[in-house]
Known about the structure:
Largest sheet: 5 strands, parallel
Strand content: 5-15%
Number of strands: 14
Shape: elongated
Mean pLDDT: 88
Low-confidence stretches: 1-13
Distance between the termini: 81 Å
Structural class: alpha/beta
Radius of gyration: 29 Å
Number of helices: 17
Helix content: 40-55%
Amino acid sequence: MSSATHPAGIGSAPLELAVGAYRFDRGQGRLMSRSGAPVPLGRRATALLTALAEQAGQEVTAAQLLDRVWPGQIVDPANVAVQISGLRAAIGDADGSVILTVHGRGYRLAVPAPAIIGNIPHALLPLSGRDVELANVVKRLRRDRLLVITGLAGTGKSRLACAAAQALAGDFHDGQWLVPLANVALADADGLAAHIAAAMGVDDGIAALSGRQSLLLLDGAERLGGGALDLIRRLVEENAGLGVLVTSHIGHRRLRPWCVRLSPLALPDDAPDSPATSLFLAAANAAGLEITPDAENVPAIASICRHLGGVPLGVEIGARAASLLGLRATAEASRDPIRALPGMRRQGPARHRSLGAAMGWALGLLTDAERQALTVLSSLPGGFTADEASCALATAQAPAGETGLARLYDKSMLDRVGEVFVLNPLVRAGAAQAG
């Protein structure tokens, strides 16, 4: 069979690939041990392995193999099985896990799973209710190679970022590295560079990123200073194969063109299939509480989710609380979520173990003036315009103005719907308690 009639996909296969415990160079038709020592193969076995390697991971029919190994000859099809048996013996494939049999059709050379390079964890539970957000993060990061996910504490920024890294594993085959930054104050570029190198476990620092297809996940970048933020931009500009995904409660203005806001889950309209309700049911089930999403339970679940502002951390805590208190009692307790809902034991940062801890941490990122302004705004019922906010702040003799509102928005303490500012119920509850 000439190269012109080879099945599609031949050109996309690598010239050298792993075949069980061996390596096969299909360009030279040579099988080698891992150390590089040649392994003798007969002419037909080599032709057979070459045909399979050219379409590694894809089915190759017995007819295609006959045509390739015995071109222009009339041969008993059973000869293919005999040659496959001999080839398996040569590569130590006694159980047929390297050259797979596609019953009744042909054979397929198994492609080994690529080794995972890096330290980004895979979530034990699936990402719930974030399909659109995940697709957008993957699309934006592929396009811009730099993306900052901002949003209120507990909205799932880190979980979304890890899911995106998993989805992009094929794009960054030289490694994906999680660099924890929460509560780490790094003002200058040198400090961040050293922190990245330590997380990667390399001696040559960020120079190790040069010429490689790698992803950095800088998680919890709230306390980075100007020099460190400038380094992030330079890393992307100077390394064409590098992607940088950042999570931060604060939308840093130096990185504003690359910032995307992660909102809480859409609040349920007494619908059993809403993202918040689905997360509540999944978390309740994980806590050992089996709840049927029927006409009696769904309104109570919707009430809990609304009082918790659709924040995934809050919804999960509410679901676990329901396993202890019951659904009706939890619905009542969620009206005062900071005080009335119990915390939960879980791995991860201490600030994610209770709503009081999460909101206290977020408030701790504010200046005294910003905290005072937020306390005043939290007393306003519902949404408010910039003029209404300024009036309330002036009456209370608190810091005012569009600049103050913009800073609170950048620090994820305000949301905006058109011309109206709104406070998440958890922010409102946290500010009221702190005030």
